[in-house]
Design a protein that fits this description.
Shape of chain B: globular
Largest interface: A-B, 29 and 23 residues
CATH superfamily of the domain at 2-161 and 198-224 and 289-303 in chain A: NAD(P)-binding Rossmann-like Domain
Strand order of the largest sheet of chain A: 3-2-1-4-5-7-12
CATH class of the largest domain in chain B: Alpha Beta
CATH topology of the largest domain in chain B: Rossmann fold
Number of strands of chain B: 35
Number of helices of chain B: 32
Helix content of chain B: 25-40%
Oligomer: heterodimer
Strand content of chain B: 15-25%
CATH superfamily of the largest domain in chain B: Alpha/Beta hydrolase fold, catalytic domain
Number of helices of chain A: 11
CATH topology of the domain at 2-161 and 198-224 and 289-303 in chain A: Rossmann fold
Radius of gyration of chain B: 30 Å
Structural class of chain A: alpha/beta
Largest sheet of chain B: 8 strands, mixed
């Protein structure tokens, strides 16, 4: 297959493009900066630029769409422009270009209203109750994508949860940076069970979804390692791998949520706020999922265990 | 005031109610047309092209409406769609109630019964009908049943009543509601009666469900029917609806159809006496009494599945064992008492008699005479065969005499352990509805204070004021005097019920387990065979159920000096004294007592130590104990074979392991695969119903070494059944092979496996199995492996999340206990994970693991799992 991977300059995009390439497909990457994916045709452009998008999808059999504005705060219009309109434009262009498969990379937060999630499967995206602009706009985007599903246009939505690994500038780097600065809070008892996804597993799941699109189209899947751990243990594991002290001080989750809500409301700058309600919820309530349907339908299992992931992360910091 | 209002369809979106079942039905009645709101799945069944085999006619009470039956409609329709028995379910809102028409008339009971008949005629219901009723709707439903006996194929009643005995007042809450000033204000003027009813949920009804029940009753005008319904309760003999109530109450005696009574025990109005009354009127009804459910039983429990399952097989299993199997239990339980009636040899020694003073020695002659006199005296005092007698007497000569006297005259003894606690004991005793209570002072005082039913008989003579205060009608002394020389009634038949024993209650409310004479005889014989107890054997029985069988075995029994409510206080010296008193060769100890006996061994005098060397068999009965404890007991009694058996109230002696077996197993078992409880004792068959991936024991019970599953047992000394727990009874006996081969089987609810040598290993409770996406984890193995870590005192395995995708969690108690619960640190977590042998999502450390009240040794994994789920959800880190 000829496969377009959007947003391939990010951690997951690059790993996914590589995994698809390794599976023997021709890969074209599309994003603003160079993707750096070996053996792929690298096309630069903007998702919000129709001409760029038309060029990107031309001649493709499949699209794996990762490009998005991922952030905890920022102007709502920007999220909508990239995540909603960008996805809409890409879907239209892809169909017009005769693309047959479309993997929409989404997030479990699209169906999450803030309660704890314990062993739940992927529920419908719910923009109305999703928390934060990112989750809201990604929810709209996933609904758009799944609505576009048709017999000749197989759409699958895949929601990897908390992707991390070596080279991660989002989750891991921020945790480590804050831990170094002594600003990483442990919320509550730190016992909330959180399931995460090691980068290689997320990439192989997206590649699997691409392969299985004809059989499982129209559906959404949450992808994780299937190894939930207390959040304190995860943070400690990441800190240990990076050689920094794990978080010691603790903030009651209710207070953190309230403070986060305030910050979110007033924060419109470019830098990340120290804590938003979304993050407070993420770190103080359980988030783990039923992976049975995902594994059976995608014919996929995670190859890298949590412990192996920590070892690989430590090795990357040691280099 | 014209309160008339037309019928309407309920608003959409009521939780759990499929709006497609709602319809309006016009019925011509006495020149007028009345419109009913009816829930009816007929149209849905027609869409599915399914012809129903019959109709369930469901009648709500006051102040509910047909919404009460929504689960039955959905469940019956789903069952039909899945190819099961297809029932049409018709649930009307009675006129003036729910969303049916407000006619402005006042309806009385005969009118309501007639209304219902007119509705079913209009609906053209002509096939077989099962009436289903709740509350006063149950009376209307039974009225329909009496009037349509030819069509009637079954009766299901939920907390209802058809009879108000003239001598007993109606329950207090209703009496209050019936006072005229209260009646109007509480029932119509304000929604007080409605709200009070909606507050009766156990657990409380969710807000949206309450709103749904309120929906048709917004405004005083719409509640007039509630008022009139309450006023129509024939509480007084002269009430205009009384003749109709009496007609129905008498009429149901002649209905020859299967009946199911589902009863919420926590109902302030429809109390147990109404259940007893219905039970006596209907022909062999099946009963399930839910101790934790209340008046709104249809909201509290899954009555719909229960009723549908019962309807598929309504005839309760005929009780087998009418004739004792050859070679089993030929001799009645009192036969040794008859045989040794003239023997001066010692039968019983009470080391600490209740009256105080020196040890009390009772000869066979005296015991035998006492039992005969009491038996005759109890008969004279009105105790009849089949009457239930609750025994609230501490172990000793009095209890023994009372027990055998009751057994001899065919009265059913009800035995609940004081270890249940007063609340548990009270629930057990009232649930067993004794006709008589025999007790010592504490028991009788509790009976009086908690208003347990039954005539009260005291084991000793108390001063007149005490007798009056406690309502004591007779003492043992008086009864024995009355019975002296009197003839005894005929002996009970072997298949007659002999006893109701209560389970420990460690997994929910204590259940009454029913034994017949022949089953108790078989238990006696199994004990005799397994441990060599017979006439003249010296026996110290610190384990209640076996202690009671001492005289039946012909053993010379000693009751040690101990606090029966707290077996864990039994000392080594007390055991030694009891051994010395009867030259005991056999000692039965309760598992809770073993630890203290071992712990107090240091204070034994040389004489006492010597006495213990005569013991040949020592048994920790009731629950398996740890090997170290068994070693400790064996060291105390060096000539004895130490054993630990496996059993439960439903089957008291199933397997037995000697200390040597246990030592061997510790070497053999690689990493601990459960607790070895040994091979089945003679006459017991053990099979394993393999677990499927969902953790259900769906496998055909079989003997396949190494396969884990529910432990299923058969023996002549198994329980006969459960007391008014039809669903529990079915649960314990379900499955393909369970009825085959003429043997009775019992599903124990425990999981375990058999090894190549045919020995049983217990791996935990079925309800505690953790069902992960990767497979099923039984708790005991991982707990043992974690427990072997030097820093760990005890471990409990919990499951969090939905079954099928659960995560296993280890909770440990350290030898060096922590003060507050917390996550294990990285090092401990890693050690526990590598020891466990199963994937663990989290490792938690607690000051103390919760254990069940009775044994104080079994980890309460249900509670532990609930706690772990809360903590791992992100809630506060409280203590478990």
């Amino acid at each position: 297959m000829r496969v377009l991977v959007t947003g391939a300059s990010g951690l997951l995009g690059r790993a996914t493009a590589s995994a698809i390439r390794d599976a023997g497909h021709e890969v074209r990457t599309f994003q603003r900066r160079a993707s750096g994916v070996q053996g792929a045709e690298d096309l630069r452009g903007s998702l919000t630029e129709p001409a760029d998008v038309a060029r990107a999808v031309a001649g493709m059999d499949a699209v794996v769409h990762l490009a998005a504005k991922v952030s905890l705060a920022g102007p709502p219009a920007e999220f909508a422009a990239v995540n909603v309109e960008g996805t809409r434009g890409l879907l239209n262009a892809a169909r017009a270009a005769g693309v047959g498969r479309f993997v929409q990379v989404s997030s479990p937060s699209v169906a999450h209203s803030g309660d704890s999630l314990e062993g739940t499967d992927a529920e419908s995206a719910d923009p109305e109750h999703a928390r934060g602009e990112y989750a809201r706009t990604k929810a709209v985007a996933e609904l758009l994508a799944l609505e576009a599903d048709a017999p000749d246009f197989a759409v699958v939505a895949v929601r990897p949860h908390l992707v991390w690994g070596p080279g991660d500038t989002q989750l891991v780097a921020r945790i480590v940076e804050r831990a170094r600065a002594g600003r990483l809070p442990l919320l509550g008892s730190g016992a909330a069970l959180i399931d995460t996804t090691y980068i290689d597993n997320a990439a192989s799941a997206l590649a699997a979804a691409l392969e299985r699109a004809d059989a499982v189209h129209g559906q959404a899947y949450v992808v994780t390692n299937g190894e939930p751990r207390p959040v304190a243990e995860l943070l400690a594991g990441i800190c240990r791998a990076a050689g920094v002290r794990s978080p010691a001080w603790s903030v009651p989750p209710g207070l953190a949520r309230a403070a986060g809500g305030m910050v979110e409301r007033f924060w419109r700058g470019e830098d990340e706020p120290p804590m938003t309600r979304f993050l407070a919820e993420q770190l103080s309530t359980a988030h783990w999922f039923d992976q049975r349907r995902t594994r059976a339908d995608l014919a996929w299992t995670p190859a890298v265990s949590l412990d192996e992931g920590f070892r690989l992360l430590a090795a990357s910091y040691a280099r | 005031m014209n309160r008339a209002a037309p019928a309407a369809l309920p608003p959409s979106g009521l939780p759990g109610l499929d709006a497609r079942f709602s319809r309006l039905v016009e019925v011509r009645s006495a020149g007028a047309t009345r419109t009913w709101h009816v829930l009816d799945n007929a149209a849905r069944l027609a869409e599915l092209r399914i012809a129903p085999t019959g109709t369930l006619l469901c009648v709500h009470g006051n102040p509910t409406w047909s919404y009460l039956w929504r689960r039955l409609l959905s469940a019956a329709t789903a069952q039909a769609a899945a190819g099961g028995t297809a029932w049409r379910v018709v649930a009307p809102d009675q006129l003036e109630m729910g969303f049916s028409e407000r006619t402005g008339e006042r309806r009385t009971l005969p009118r309501r019964v007639r209304d219902l008949g007119e509705l079913t005629a209009e609906l053209g219901i002509d096939g077989p009908v099962v009436t289903v009723g709740h509350d006063w709707g149950g009376v209307v439903a039974l009225g329909w049943a009496v009037d349509h006996a030819d069509q009637l194929s079954g009766i299901v009643s939920l907390n209802t009543a058809v009879h108000q005995a003239p001598e007993t007042p109606v329950p207090a809450p209703l009496r209050l509601a019936l006072l005229p000033p209260v009646l109007g204000a509480s029932t119509a003027g304000t929604p007080a009666f409605l709200e009070a009813t909606l507050a009766l949920g156990h657990p409380p009804l969710p807000g949206p469900v309450k709103d749904a029940f309120r929906a048709p009753y917004r405004g005083a005008d719409r509640r007039q029917g509630i008022r009139d319904f309450v006023a129509d309760i024939p509480a007084e003999p002269g009430h205009p609806s009384r003749p109709e109530l009496d007609r129905i109450a008498e009429g149901i005696r002649h209905l020859d159809v299967p009946a199911l009574l589902l009863w919420g025990a926590r109902d302030p109005v429809f109390q147990d006496r109404y259940l007893d009354d219905l039970f006596a009127r209907l022909r062999h009804p099946s009963v399930h009494r839910f101790p934790d459910a209340g008046h709104l039983i249809a909201e509290d429990v899954d009555y719909a599945s229960a009723a549908l399952a019962w309807l598929d097989d309504p005839a309760p299993e005929a009780t087998p064992a009418a004739e004792p199997p050859p070679g089993i239990g030929g001799a009645p339980l009192w036969s040794v008492l008859d045989e040794l009636r003239d023997s001066p040899d010692t039968a019983l020694v009470e080391l600490a008699p209740p009256a105080g003073g020196a040890a009390r020695v009772v000869s066979w002659r005296l015991l035998s005479r006492r039992v005969r006199e009491l038996a005759a005296g109890l008969t004279a005092a009105g105790v009849r065969p089949g009457h239930r007698v609750s025994l609230l007497v501490p172990p000793g000569a009095d209890l023994t005499a009372a027990l055998y006297a009751c057994l001899r005259i065919g009265a059913i003894v009800v035995v609940a352990d004081a270890g249940l606690g007063l609340r548990g004991l009270s629930r057990a005793v009232t649930g067993a509805r004794p006709d008589h209570v025999i007790g010592a002072l504490p028991g009788l005082a509790a009976a009086r204070a908690l208003r347990w039913p039954g005539q009260r008989i005291a084991i000793a003579r108390y001063p007149a004021p005490v007798r009056r205060l406690l309502g004591i009608s007779a003492s043992f002394g008086e009864l024995a005097a009355r019975g002296r020389g009197a003839a005894l009634p005929p002996e009970p038949a072997p298949a007659d019920t002999a006893a109701v024993l209560f389970t420990s209650g460690s997994t929910g409310p204590a259940k009454g387990v029913v034994y017949t004479h022949v089953e108790l005889q078989a238990l006696r014989d199994a004990l005799a065979r397994q441990y060599g107890v017979g006439i003249g054997t010296g026996l110290v029985a610190g384990f209640a159920p076996f202690a009671l069988l001492g005289p039946a075995l012909g053993a010379r029994s000693a009751t040690p000096d101990m606090d029966v409510t707290s077996p864990a206080t039994l000392t080594a010296s007390a055991v030694a004294d009891a051994v010395a008193a009867v030259d005991a060769t056999v000692v039965f100890l309760s598992p809770a007592a073993v630890a203290n006996v071992v712990a107090t061994a240091g204070s034994l005098t040389p004489d006492r130590r010597r006495a213990l060397t005569g013991v040949r068999t020592v048994l920790s009965a009731g629950a398996p104990v740890a090997r170290e404890l068994l070693e400790g007991v064996a060291a105390l009694m060096p000539s004895a074979t130490a054993s630990t058996p496996y059993g439960m109230t439903e089957g008291l002696l199933l397997t037995s392991a000697t200390l040597d077996d246990v030592r061997e197993a510790a070497v053999e078992a690689d990493g601990g695969a459960g607790v070895l409880v040994g091979p089945p004792v003679d006459g017991v068959e053990v099979r394993i119903a393999a677990l499927d991936r969902s953790g259900a024991a769906t496998g055909e019970p079989a003997v396949v070494p190494g396969v884990a599953g529910e432990i299923v047992v058969s023996a002549d000394h198994l329980r006969d059944g459960y007391d008014r727990l039809e669903l529990t009874q079915r649960e314990a006996a379900h499955g393909p092979a369970m009825e085959s081969g003429g043997r009775r089987w019992h599903r124990t609810g425990d999981v375990g496996h058999l090894d190549e040598a045919g020995r049983l290993w217990v791996e935990g409770r079925l309800v505690h199995v953790v069902v992960t996406a990767e497979g099923v984890i039984t708790p005991v193995g991982p707990e043992q492996r974690i427990g072997e870590l030097p820093e760990v005192a005890r471990a409990g395995l919990a499951g969090v999340g939905p079954r099928g995708t659960q995560q296993a969690v280890a909770v440990v108690e350290l030898r060096n206990p922590v003060r507050r619960p917390r996550l294990a640190d990285a090092e401990l977590a890693e050690r526990v994970r590598s020891a466990a042998g199963v994937p663990l999502a989290a490792v938690l450390v607690v000051p103390r693991l919760p254990t069940d009240i009775r044994h104080n040794s079994k980890v309460d994994r249900t509670r532990l799992s609930r706690w772990a789920a809360r903590v791992l959800r992100g809630e506060r880190m409280t203590r478990p």
